[in-house]
Design brief:
30% of the residues lie in helices and 25% in strands. By secondary structure, it is an alpha/beta fold.
Amino acid sequence: MEKKPLWQPTRSFVESSNLTAYRNWLAQRGKSFANYTELWQWSTSDLDAFWQSMLEYFDVQYSGKIRQVLSGTMPECTWFDGISLSYAEHIFRNASPDRPALICLDENGNRRYVSWESLRHETAQVQRWLLAHGLEKGDRVAGVMANGAEATVAFLATNACGAIWSCCSPDFGTASIIDRFAQIQPRILIASAEYFYNGKKFDRWAAIAELRRQLPTVEHVIVVGQKSAHGITTWHEVVSLPTPTELSFARVPFSHPIWVLYSSGTTGLPKAITHSMGGILLEQLKYGTFHNDIRPGERFLWYTTTGWMMWNYLQGTLLCGATAIAYDGSPAYPDLHALWNLVADLRLQHFGTSAGFLLACRKANIDCTGLDLAALRSVNATGSTLPPEGFDWVYEHVKKDVWLVSMSGGTDVCSAFIGGNPWAAVYRGEIQCRALGCRLEAWDESGQPLVQAEGEMVITRPMPSMPIYFWNDPEKKRYRESYFENYPGIWRHGDWIEITETGGIIVYGRSDATLNRGGVRIGTSEVYRAVETVPEIQDSLIVCIETGEGEFYMPLFVVLRPELQLTPEIKQIINRQLRTQCSPRHVPDEIICVPEIPYTISGKKTELPVKKILSGKGNASSLQTGSLRNPDSLRFFQQLYDQKKKS
């Protein structure tokens, strides 16, 4: 049967898109493409020409002369050797008195409109302070900051100095922050004195004191949120310096680090993922402009904390001339209507969130059709797989003619491999396209490409925003182990995907947490889709344990509604749902009721710690749990393993 799209772009939508403007620009230079597939094929086969066109199309300012666009092969790649540039310089090229640079909001109802003039002034003041205290190119500035204007200013000031930024959200555990920052040895620490979440205030002074003790390389601390603090410099003092100063931009080589991000760290010391200045600049210009279709003067809110890569992505909306909306607090305070009300009130063109938030709205029967969402052009989702039911909810309960942009990428590249296409239809459960410049394929175990079949997601050609290295990994040993062990010279990302007949992509779940039962591989997301439609179930998690000699144990863990107990009848309903919606192979060996499912701080359900515990490859006390939102959730699984071992 022919697929029916949930949304199709109108002719005017296509013709006015940034992607069409780029295609027209290419045509004027002798390169014509009839459709997106042809454009994508060119962008991923002639890498030198495509990425050179990004430099030219966006009029990227740089010093020096390009010796070579790309040299080497993954993971030993060098991009745009010979030139130097500044990310912050390109942010401030979009300064305009006609619109704010930032709009900062929190769950207490506070609002701050930050003009471009104010953003420049505060960034210059912080830059002056950093330079006066000895910050040099290549030094690290670490932030533990709430999602407000101060975080953006601190990053831009650091970047303008040619230094390297790294940030954690203040809701991270102190040990987890130390695990990250101790690796990069920062000279400056900027920290929020407090933060609010779900109607509660959390004081961070004890954590700041502990960080000062445990990070001996930190020479100076700036505290945000206090007008005075004995013995510590406050943010207010830094930005209130009486003598105005001009903002300057230190240009650094294309491959110079821009920031250090971190893997979730739930099963080992977090990997300190280091990206390049030029790679992130080009990638954010490309993705935000062409795949999110962000236009000058628009407003873009992505709900995130400073510890999730989407905060870094949100900064890139400023490169596109948009106003970035920073929201600090819980997305469900006082209820799940809060963010949608802001979307309507601020007349936002783009709203980004997690797939989990959209599914929570669906489960809570939230309906937004009564709001004034006339300005809203796109709803964006990432963080985990958005199932078909999530697509249905958006089109039935948000807006019928909105562009739903599901995207998938990661901290690894601080962008999306697959995402939005303003020329294409949106089909239920599918991400629209492979991003320009990203040679993504689905492979079988022998390395053969697959179409319309489930396979391992791989990237076969380099991208500028791939990490230049992991910090403290001089031989790139951990880097190679993370991405290049399965297929030499080919990036294996760790997702099971299918490329459909329409050119879209279905993501089935993490391949490193994939259920392998008797040689048949099952993506976890399809299990969750089926199980969590059962009204009695609030949440679920499934793992598959190899027990030896080709045997497998696949338990399903469920969180029931508070008033219920796991009866044989409920188990039968779950098994029937899995058997009918998926296949008999999806039926678990055992269904076990648990108090809660482990989640990362960024809101991702995480199977790997549970899998390690139940496989006997780790225990709840030895695993790195600082980046878990609820580390105590692992105790149940440890007790379960201990009981089974005794029996």
